[in-house]
Write a structure and sequence with these properties.
Elements: H1 3-12, E1 18-23, E2 29-32, H2 40-49, H3 54-59, E3 61-63, E4 66-73, E5 77-82, E6 85-91, E7 95-101, H4 107-123
């Protein structure tokens, strides 16, 4: 399966409207949805946030120029919220998943599909 198929499957779940896969370090884009344009500094800050969340706690998480309030950050998952939408980022052994859910989708529903994909990638050593 291509990396793009994973992104397409996330969007096909109906729980996520934008998604991307990056290298674990955030320095290379493996696949992305057409409507997600994350800048290099935004993805670098996100990738660094898994190891040190203090900058994200201080100034928020920025995706596509939008500031998201940091809800959770640990060495596996980072969650952010802006009004009624949010972002989920999960780091696996080799990859970084990023997904955005729109207004009208419950955070838990979106989180479940993203975390399940991360679990699968981890199980196959990605």
């Amino acid at each position: 399966m291509s990396w793009q198929a994973y992104v397409d499957n996330l969007i096909g779940s109906g729980k996520v409207d934008k998604a991307a896969l990056f290298s674990r370090a955030g320095d290379s884009v493996w696949a992305t949805s057409a409507n997600l344009n994350v800048t290099a500094p935004e993805i670098a800050a996100l990738a660094h946030g898994f190891d040190d969340a203090s900058p994200l706690q201080a100034s928020g998480l920025h995706i596509q120029g939008q500031k998201f309030f940091l809800l959770r950050a640990d060495d596996r998952s980072i969650y952010g919220k802006h009004q009624n939408e949010g972002v989920i980022a999960v780091r696996t052994k080799q990859a970084l998943l990023l997904a955005h859910y729109p207004e009208g989708i419950q955070a838990g529903e979106a989180t479940k599909v993203v975390e399940q994909l991360a679990d699968y990638l981890i199980s196959v050593n990605y």
